[in-house]
């Protein structure tokens, strides 16, 4: 094999890892876009991705000796993978029709719906991932017949995956979007396969020689060791994915979770695996001993346990930062060493099975298949059984205990060069160190972090986030992943219900997306409505609200709680509503920006009844001016009759309709005066003086900032936001909270309250409304 051809082959293996990670990231986002971003939807993609690879590794590993030119088969697989990637998004869109039929037939929150999601995603993802699973066994069969270079090949493939993670997660998705990225990497994979086929035809050095069946020295494993070999390989994959899920949860306790968090954590993991594989290759004679493999498991277990159970003050430097650089440093400190140990295990495990009389490709195929099957089990069991039943702390102990057990088993039953007493002593010392760590720590996850700096009243480990009830400065508040969601006492959030209802007092059927502490949704029940559907991705919220936040309103027969991604209800639900209220804050959180896209607004419009309106909570402090203008332009594109209103703490309300002008009319004023509950509750104002109390219609009118023409003027050149290109999600992850940046914009361009007053002669109340509006503009964005 010439040096040039060898470099080309290694480049192709790097590229294979690169495209594979791009596929995974794109498919996770695409499935979330169509089926929602619930924990089940995301875990389903990850599990199916690994399941397809496990099946492919097993099948092609077993068949690898049949082919005289394994590289030719490898090239055909790359072409097939690229084709599958390019077709995946249109096929996923096509196959969502049966899902919509089931959803509208009333199968929400039912196992039938969950299985349908799994089946539909599997039909798209399994075929290309099945082919992906065969690439490394085939490549190894040609390139590495003796198994000496496996650590290097695995490291190179992992480095390609890290490059794919970095480039796709930071550049391709925000610049090109999901569909264009899938098209690009699909063409890259096809080009790789076609180039290799060309070389196989014209380059005599590329003709493969069938790998010989090579006998290796017998390590004289006893029967117990032989029986434990593949369970150890399975357990390795299980622990790797279980750690990844636990790390993701832990990161939300010490830093704010953004779109960069997942990408950076995955990048650090892949870099650690690559470093471990390279280390195994560079020091192969010393590390091929089973003691090295046992040490990798034991150190992995102890380091993960130590880093997560350090005193909370040890992570103070993280500072709940949203900065990608800080997230990178946190992930390096938390994940790199365990990932390096994981990288060591793969080539060292391969050494354990080298005595088997199989070709190199078949051994790699078996190792990959069993290890990847363990990854599938780790993803599903940890996410859906261990964490919900045991909680984060106990799950950490189970996973690290299992990893420690793997190391002890390898030491006791695979290491034949040391006396039993030495192996037993190492096992006892390792177990004692693990027991010492768990018995002496003062940290309990997640309580110790949720209570940091405040009094923790209660908490729930939800399926997607930590829900905590805390007391600070005398206020009882609710937090999700330590981010403020609302308080027990009456606050400005109630206006997200009162204002749209007074603009559209005839509304009967209401949909609320994101219920928070229940302030806004409960206020809709003050009005004469017939139905209130409350949608939130966290199924545990109702029990928290009923226990701590006067959540008895959830028992009202008009109320239905739907534990689902709000986008799914807007996309597939068959009911129409007079009013849709979208109350999703902390825009930098993953998938939150999807509620500000053209696709979501179009779906919401389809769910509006005649003359229906939509109200969206707009946390402007999390936007910069360009991002806010894009949100406004996207909203106007679907709801041309739109208005912008001031709310407390620089939090605005964007209220629009596809077919009716919005104004404060006599019907709304009549409700304000005659509905005693509404009038009494609005007996407050943002400055706190009686002149500003919101139960006066002229004060309510003063909250008006802009009408459709002014909104269109300030946003005319802004790009539209779409699910396919998540620029808002990436942009807000880098934007610091600063509502004062909008003071100049709103003080220079705003509309008089005159245009919104349709209940009396505007001139009679205009001076007061104008004076209060000026107060909001002057003091509301500081």
Automatic annotation (TrEMBL):
It holds the Pfam family Spermine_synth. One of its GO terms (molecular function) is spermidine synthase activity. This is Spermine synthase. The keyword Transmembrane helix applies. The chain crosses the membrane at residues 38-61, 73-95, 115-139, 151-172, 178-200, 227-247, 259-280, 292-314, 326-352, 364-387, 393-413, 425-445. One of its GO terms (cellular component) is cytosol. One of its GO terms (biological process) is spermidine biosynthetic process. The keyword Endoplasmic reticulum does not apply. InterPro entries: MFS_trans_sf, SAM-dependent_MTases_sf, Spermi_synthase. It comes from Trichlorobacter lovleyi (strain ATCC BAA-1151 / DSM 17278 / SZ). Keywords: Membrane, Spermidine biosynthesis, Transmembrane, Transmembrane helix. The lineage of its organism: Bacteria, Pseudomonadati, Thermodesulfobacteriota, Desulfuromonadia, Geobacterales.
């Amino acid at each position: 094999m010439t040096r040039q051809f060898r470099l080309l082959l290694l480049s192709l293996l790097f590229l294979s890892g690169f495209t594979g990670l791009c596929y995974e990231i794109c498919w996770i986002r695409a499935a979330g876009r169509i089926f929602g971003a619930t924990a089940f939807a995301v875990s389903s993609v990850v599990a199916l991705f690994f399941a397809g690879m496990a099946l492919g590794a097993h099948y092609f590993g077993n068949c690898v000796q049949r082919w005289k030119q394994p590289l030719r088969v490898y090239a055909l697989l790359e072409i097939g993978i690229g084709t599958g990637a390019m077709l995946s998004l249109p096929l996923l869109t096509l196959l969502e029709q049966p899902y919509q039929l089931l959803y509208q037939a009333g199968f929400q929150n039912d196992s039938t719906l969950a299985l349908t999601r799994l089946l539909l995603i599997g039909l798209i993802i399994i075929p290309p991932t099945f082919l992906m699973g065969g690439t490394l066994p085939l490549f190894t069969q040609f390139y590495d017949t003796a198994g000496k270079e496996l650590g290097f090949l695995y490291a190179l493939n992992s480095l390609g995956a890290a490059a794919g993670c970095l480039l796709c997660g930071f550049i391709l998705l925000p610049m090109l979007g999901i569909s264009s990225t899938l098209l690009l990497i699909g063409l890259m994979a096809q080009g790789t396969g076609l180039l290799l086929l060309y070389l196989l035809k014209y380059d005599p050095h590329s003709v493969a020689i069938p790998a010989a069946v090579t006998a290796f020295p017998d390590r004289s494993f006893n029967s117990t060791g032989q029986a434990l070999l593949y369970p150890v390989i399975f357990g390795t994959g299980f622990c790797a994915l279980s750690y990844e899920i636990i790390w993701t949860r832990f990161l939300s306790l010490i830093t704010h979770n953004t779109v960069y968090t997942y990408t950076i954590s995955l990048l650090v993991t892949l870099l650690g695996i690559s470093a471990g594989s390279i280390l195994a290759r560079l020091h192969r004679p010393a590390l091929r001993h089973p003691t090295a493999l046992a040490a990798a498991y034991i150190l992995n277990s102890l380091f993960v346990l130590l880093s997560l159970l350090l005193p909370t003050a040890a992570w103070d430097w993280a500072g709940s930062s949203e900065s990608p650089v800080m997230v990178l440093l946190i992930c390096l400190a938390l994940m790199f060493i365990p990932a390096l140990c994981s990288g060591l295990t793969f080539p060292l495990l391969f050494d354990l099975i080298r005595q088997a009389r199989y070709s190199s490709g078949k051994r790699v195929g078996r190792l990959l298949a069993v290890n990847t099957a363990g990854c599938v089990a780790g993803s599903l069991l940890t996410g859906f059984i261990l964490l919900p039943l045991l909680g984060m702390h106990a799950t950490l102990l189970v996973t690290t205990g299992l990893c420690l057990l793997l190391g002890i088993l390898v030491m006791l039953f695979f290491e034949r060069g040391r006396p039993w007493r030495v192996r037993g002593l190492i096992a006892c010392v390792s177990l004692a160190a693990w027991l010492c760590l768990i018995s002496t720590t003062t940290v309990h996850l997640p309580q110790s972090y949720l209570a940091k700096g405040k009094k923790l009243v209660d908490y729930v480990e939800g399926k997607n986030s930590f829900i905590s009830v805390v007391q600070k400065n005398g206020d009882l508040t609710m937090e999700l992943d330590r981010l403020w969601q609302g308080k027990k006492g009456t606050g400005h959030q109630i206006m997200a219900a009162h204002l749209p209802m007074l603009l559209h007092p005839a509304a009967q059927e209401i949909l609320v997306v994101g219920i928070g502490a229940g302030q806004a949704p409960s206020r809709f029940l003050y009005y004469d409505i017939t139905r209130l559907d409350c949608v939130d991705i966290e199924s545990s919220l109702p029990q928290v609200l009923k226990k701590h936040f006067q959540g008895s309103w959830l028992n009202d027969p008009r109320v239905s709680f739907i534990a689902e991604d709000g986008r799914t209800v807007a996309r597939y639900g068959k009911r129409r509503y007079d009013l849709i209220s979208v109350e999703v804050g902390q825009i930098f959180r993953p998938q939150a920006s999807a509620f500000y896209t053209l696709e979501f607004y179009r779906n919401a419009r389809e769910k509006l009844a005649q003359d229906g309106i939509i109200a969206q909570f707009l946390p402007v402090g999390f936007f910069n001016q360009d991002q806010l203008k894009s949100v406004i332009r996207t909203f106007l594109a679907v709801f041309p009759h739109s208005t912008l209103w001031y709310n407390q703490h620089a939090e605005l309300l964007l209220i629009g309709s596809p077919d009716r002008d919005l104004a404060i009319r006599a019907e709304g004023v009549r409700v304000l005066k005659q509905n005693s509950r509404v009038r009494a509750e609005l007996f407050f104002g943002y400055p706190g003086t009686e002149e500003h109390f919101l139960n006066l219609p002229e004060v309510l009118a003063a909250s008006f900032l802009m009408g459709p023409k002014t909104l269109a003027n300030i946003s005319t050149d802004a790009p539209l936001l779409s699910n396919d290109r998540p620029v808002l999600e990436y942009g807000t992850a880098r934007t610091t909270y600063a509502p004062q940046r909008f003071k100049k914009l709103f003080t220079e361009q705003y509309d008089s309250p005159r245009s919104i007053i349709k209940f009396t002669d505007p001139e009679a109340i205009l001076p007061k409304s104008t004076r209060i509006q000026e107060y909001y503009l002057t003091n509301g964005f500081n």
